[in-house]
UniProtKB/TrEMBL annotation:
Domain of life assignment: Bacteria
Organism: Acetobacter cibinongensis
Protein name: DUF2125 domain-containing protein
Keywords, comma-separated and alphabetical: Signal
Extent of the signal sequence: 1-40
Amino acid sequence: MFVAQGLCLRHLYAQMKAHTILPLASLMLVSAAFARPALAAPPASCAVISHGGTHVTDQNVSFDTTSIRTPDGSTSLTIKQMTYTTTASGSTADSVQDQADAASLLLVSALTGRHNPACSAWLNKQGQSIASGLKAGNTYSIVWNKAAVTHASAHVGIGSASLKLAGDTAAHNAAATLGMTGLTFQNIPNQDLLPTAAHAAFSLPASEIPALMAAVGGKAEQAPAVHVTISNFDAQRDTVHLKGNGTATLTGNVNATSASGHLEVVNIETLIEKVRAANQMKLAAGMVLARLVSHAQNGASVWDATWSSGVLTVNGFPLPLK
């Protein structure tokens, strides 16, 4: 994953399967993975991780190369350069490396939709420590440069991805920003409909992070509800530009996700043409209806949208996209 705009992106850009889309809801949780000293490296049954050119201090770590793969070798993440930084006191060289590895492990799950139950307990323990760190007001950031995720013959390339997370000692919320650029796709259904760049700013309660982290990396069907507020979201491919804001109840299972918010699409005609070219005729018909009920504003098609139980409702008109 999505939140209101992420959900619309998911279904306006393609009706992709869980293992081929970029679930924004899951990617949000990646940002939580680097918020306190980690408790231990992941078990071998969860993932195999290696690094080259490691430069590490108590509050910063950078890797010239990183490789993460599932035990069966079917899914992997390679990163040419990764940098992780925290302002939290009490961190150690080992703990910051574990935090960076945890974030990267969740990135793999977010991009592929692959969930390994052997990772759940480890990620849940990480999340408990993360929640404490966020409530103490710590801030964290991670940057991945020139990364690639592969599952079987499917391939997702990432030019650059960055995440920043800040805790709040009063409200105990986590404020985050996410950015991804240079996205490329190979051997993925409807890949020409997916965005090449996406950015989001959002917040969520720190206390809700641990169980959702475990679900994203482990058992997606057992995820609890997490309440997210999106202050800004935008995604772009060629001349098609989607943006908006809203609120959502997120889980590791897209079918159990609901959202509402404000949505804008620039150049919707081109998007409809791309959907038709991908032979997604039902989706194209739904988008034509959406265009008819949209409001025009500054050259964009505008809606107040909700997503629930597989139905996207725009300006009061339900558009089933399953």
